[in-house]
Specification:
about 240 residues, alpha+beta, 5-stranded antiparallel sheet, 10 strands, globular
Length: about 240
């Protein structure tokens, strides 16, 4: 009996030690739109492709980069509805933390609690893993800019720069060549847009990509406006 006999069970390991539903969830991530992030010396940038399948789609209310707390944000690759659930849970846990300690939840704590939620869905009956990987950006308790990736298994990693979703291998290779230890936030934004452009189908503009940044100067996370994104794209040309 091969691994295929275990492919419908989330809570049963295959003979080769795999949980195949988690691997299938990672396939859903790999089919999603490319998203990437870069941690600079004075901030973090995360961005993603927000191109729609049809020009008739009303994209005003569709957001792929979300703010969790005043100082942290998240972007995803994979299944959008699953992402909304995780964003809501992350915001609730952040509010609970603030009520108890009267301070913003550090990004490392936020990542751990989100990863714990995702891990619970890998060993419970009647559920399936979340079909998303997350890139979470923010300031840690000591004011250090941090970038984390959280996978459907509940595993999480800190990164200097990384990419998820479709074309993530080429995007990572591009980042490895471009990333520098002393990179500042402005340079990181330009590098992120250049990396996204490598695998982008069609022309990039301020409307079909989303960019979120958190700056060490004020510790606040914010989304760049379409006009700001367009200015960065014009500078890169």
């Amino acid at each position: 009996m091969g691994d295929s006999a275990y492919s419908f069970s989330l809570t049963t390991f295959s003979r080769t030690g795999k949980l195949l539903q988690i691997e299938y969830a990672l396939n859903a991530v790999a089919n999603g739109r490319t998203a990437l992030g870069i941690a600079a010396t004075d901030g973090v940038v995360i961005c993603t492709d927000k191109k729609f399948s049809s020009a008739l789609v009303e994209g005003e209310g569709v957001r792929k980069v979300e703010r969790i707390t005043d100082g942290s944000g998240v972007v995803y690759a994979g299944v959008g509805p699953d992402y909304r659930v995780l964003v809501r849970k992350a915001r609730k846990s952040s509010q609970a933390y603030y009520r108890e300690y009267r301070e913003t939840k550090p990004i490392s704590q936020l990542v751990k609690s989100t990863a714990s939620v995702m891990q619970e869905y890998t060993q419970s009956g009647g559920v399936r893993p979340f079909g998303v990987s997350l890139l979470m950006a923010g300031m840690d308790g000591d004011g250090t800019p941090r970038l984390f990736q959280v996978d459907p298994s509940g595993a999480y990693f800190g990164w200097k720069a990384t990419a998820i979703g479709k074309n993530y291998v080429n995007a990572k290779n591009f980042l490895e060549k471009r990333y520098q230890e002393d990179m500042e936030l402005e340079d990181a934004i330009h590098t992120a847009l250049l990396t996204l452009r490598e695998g982008f189908e069609g022309e990039m503009n301020g409307e079909n990509i989303e960019v979120g940044v958190v700056s060490k100067s004020d510790g606040k996370f914010r989304l760049l406006t379409p006009s700001e994104i367009q200015d960065y794209l014009d500078e890169a040309n």
